[in-house]
Specification:
With 345 residues, this protein is of the alpha/beta class. The protein is built from 15 helices and 13 strands. The strands form 2 sheets. A 7-stranded parallel sheet has the order 3-2-1-4-5-6-7, with helices on both faces. A 6-stranded parallel sheet has the order 10-9-8-11-12-13, with helices on both faces. Strand 12, helix 12 and strand 13 form a beta-alpha-beta unit. The radius of gyration is 21 Å and the shape is globular. It comes from Pantoea phytobeneficialis. This is Glycosyltransferase family 4 protein.
Length: 345
């Protein structure tokens, strides 16, 4: 019973916070007895089931959920995302409660859900976790929580991902292949990447690949119909798509600690990213240069595209990106840090 942990997740779908939880579970030491309470099913269920006992309840089964949590005999209850935090809070357990803060509360919520709903969710979310052990997904998010919301009992454990299985690479005739991986929406600011690349790429041996789907996909496909820009759509195996590409790009307005970036680094890809604090954190985490930051302007992004294109140090940048990942952002490192927290509390 001493090491029986319950994880509460909003679903078992392929989504950032769910994938972080999965990576924690898969890399925790074997002495933990792990259960997962999911408030919806999803395509990740089989992977969760390799290491944990899974129970799925509809969110409307409130009494069943609370009874399950209260009577489970857990030593720690760890929830991810606001809806999971609510059930964790309402169960009033007598054991330590943990939550992982995956974003900047109102900043992200307002951009994805509108001002009123976003502000309300941020307010409710902060109230529910005020007595929890709070884990920020990056040092930047921890700093925000402490400085802007006066939160107590906050620590930082940076997100980690598993290193992808090596795949056979193919040469691409000296072309430089840039790529974006993620959701296509306003918060991710993919349009700026496309505008910068379209204005810069003429006469260059370069292509841009867009991997992902989202609310802006149709508009972006129609506006940027260019032989140098390839839209790949959504895929469950992005690594198989970008294995032969060179440089990851993100112009995101807000992130907690972007999984797409560290997944790209795990595959030995350098990066060009907007200089928001989480991107700065990754950039500065390694003593040798592993990527580029730009000052959120299209001109700044174009300068970075050109600097990487002309660089004769592409191989060392790739090696540094891989080593940055290995030192700071592996799933094993993340899970061991969580294990230390569970034992401590």
């Amino acid at each position: 019973m001493k090491n029986k942990i319950l994880f509460i997740v909003p679903s078992l779908k392929n989504a950032g916070p769910v994938n972080v939880c999965l990576n924690i579970i898969k890399n925790l030491p074997a002495f933990y007895d792990i259960e997962v309470l999911a408030l919806n099913g999803g395509e990740r269920e089989e992977e969760f089931a390799t290491r944990a006992k899974i129970t799925v309840f509809k969110r409307t089964a409130i009494l069943q959920i609370l009874r399950f949590i209260r009577k489970g005999g857990f030593s720690v209850i760890h929830s991810h995302c606001t809806v999971s935090d609510i059930f964790n809070y309402l169960s009033f357990p007598s054991v330590p409660q943990v939550t992982t803060i995956h974003n900047y509360f109102e900043v992200d919520f307002v951009q994805t859900k509108g001002f009123v709903k976003g502000m309300l969710e941020g307010l409710v979310g902060r109230y529910m976790i005020r007595h929890f052990h709070k884990v920020a997904c990056s040092y930047a998010v921890m700093k925000h929580c402490v400085n802007y919301h006066a939160m107590h009992n906050v620590t930082a454990i940076p997100n980690g991902v598993e290193q992808p299985r090596p795949l056979q690479h193919q040469n691409h005739d000296n072309e430089v292949h840039y790529f974006y991986l993620g959701v296509l929406n306003k918060r991710k600011n993919v349009q700026q990447i496309l505008e910068a690349f379209s204005g810069w790429c003429q006469g260059k041996m370069a292509k841009l690949h867009i991997i992902g789907a989202g609310s802006d996909e149709t508009f972006l496909r129609q506006k940027f119909n260019n032989e140098k820009i390839i839209f790949h759509g959504s895929t469950d195996q992005p690594h198989a798509v970008y294995k032969d590409f060179d440089c990851f790009i993100s112009a995101s307005h807000a992130e907690g600690l972007p999984l797409a970036l560290i997944e790209a680094m795990a595959s030995g890809k350098t990066f060009i990213c907007s200089d928001i604090e989480p991107h700065q954190e990754v950039h500065n985490a390694f003593e040798q240069k592993s990527g580029y930051l730009f000052n959120k302007t299209t001109h700044g992004l174009i300068c970075c595209l050109n600097e990487y294109y002309l660089s004769d140090e592409k191989a060392s940048l790739a090696d540094n990106a891989k080593n940055n990942y290995l030192k700071n952002y592996s799933a094993k490192k993340m899970a061991l840090s969580y294990s230390e927290l569970y034992q401590k509390i």
